[in-house]
Amino acid sequence: xxxxxxxxxxxxxxAALELSDAERDAMAGQLTRIVEHFEALRELPESLLAxxxxxxxxPLRADVARDGSPGALVEANAPAFAHGHFVVPRVVTRD
Amino acid sequence: MTxxxxxxxxxxxxxxxxxxxxxxxxxxRAVAEESLARxxxxxxxxxxxxxxxxxxxxxxxxxxxxxxxxxxxxxxxGVPLAVKDNINVAGRPSTAGSKILAGFVSPDHAxxxxxxxxxxxxxxxxxxxxxxxxxxxxxxxxxxxxxxPWNPARVPGGSSGGSAAAVAARAVPxxxxxxxxxxxxxxxxxxxxxxxxxxxxxVSRYGLIAFASSFDQAGALTRSVxxxxxxxxxxxxADPKDSTALATPVPDVLAALLAGAGGRRIGLLAxxxxxxxxxxxDVKASFEEAxxxxxAAGAAVTMVSVPRxxxxxxxxxxxATAEASSNLARFDxxxxxxxxxxxxxxxLYRETRSQGxxxxxxxxxxxxxxxxxxxxxxxxxxRAQKVRALLARDFTAAFRDVDAILCPxxxxxxxxxxxxxxxxxxxxxxxxFTVPASLAGIPAVSVPSGFSRDxxxxxxxxxxxxxxxxxxxxxxxxxxxxxxxxxxxxxGAVS
Lengths: 95, 495
Fold this sequence. Notes:
Chain A is mostly helical.
């Protein structure tokens, strides 16, 4: 299928990425070529695909509470940190 | 007692080096000093390292010397270790080759690093890599490409290209990397090294910067099979910090290392032998030579088909990128790394990510987000998951007829820098022989099998069922002995 620049823009919003017009157009061409190659997956008969869809089931561990308080290095790695919290810009905006 | 030369020890197997440190013939500090000097040269010549910290390395080496003096037995006493920069080492930067993690300092060791350090290894530096492990040539690092010590005009492979170059350049005898779709095995092949990826879960993923969690595994790069197996023996094991780490006993890879290939059933991957395999003539010749070697060693060599190998690249690049789009959502400028934009939270996310990620990472995030998005999920991600399961069943069926499968690690030897950078699909398609084992969660070992006519290393890969690492290392040893590759030194190796 063709991935046009409008679809790239839509996906970029979902991925929280901002692309220039040139980046968007280049991505549209590259992703179209890649996805067209991947269309080979559609040629497999459905009868072959029955059965488990997950090759590797995800193991689960016990839900055990642990101390999640940030250590000194967690604070040191944060772009902005105050009073035991990560600082971010105002969340409720018109953006 | 004769004193041992650090320079000579770095030219030989790390078992001899560890023995010399353990018996007091050389100090871990002297070895670390020599390795640090070589790492600087490997950085200048090949761009292999992203960071070193001589003071910290020497402090660790002194710690090893103290442990040796107290009589502690350390299998890796004083062995210099290079760590791919997407694996955490406490107190050192981890950029994963990305600008978005500039300035990040790891709060603790990855479990595989902790195990190696506990066994006496000394971290010399963090190695260059494709950004977040996304690449097959190490040209996607935000900090510049890595060059191949066998020919600096060629790529070292990726994404663990810095780790491969560091070992091939003889700066360190042991490096670790991550292998999501071949990122240890393919650079090992390009740089004339042994590289392995374990059965999924055999080595803890704790402390690895996640790319695609159902694929990511840590592995090691060494010059010899013996060293590869010893690294596996140290790195493998259960870990409460990784719920996907296997709790079953670790197979003993050292006991059977010299078992040979006699009586073993080896399947040559039919899809690699066919015209569609697209093998470089020298790789094809090496593949045929490897089959002869195994037959001469007493193996029953036949052809075996794993039909869905032909679809492995599409399946891998849909499922792994889907996982990446989720895993890399955490890089948003809030908790660590670079931050751009402060008008609003949404703008902070967008600007941080848009300025912090490189082109290949953006491409894969977009591809994965597309594959998961409403209207396309079933046709792409959902279908790819079903074919992934089918491929795993193909392998199960193949392993009823053969004990292990042999195929080239890569269809071609190391290619020139820039040869594929404008064609992402061509770069992806070169992963055709490494991604199948990743999709099935089964182990694989790449071993040098010979050289191309222009002197570039060629690697062959043994793939086996889960927990078959002892067999794979023993088979790799047979090819290693026959190829004579171990005796050759990369022309660019430092001293």
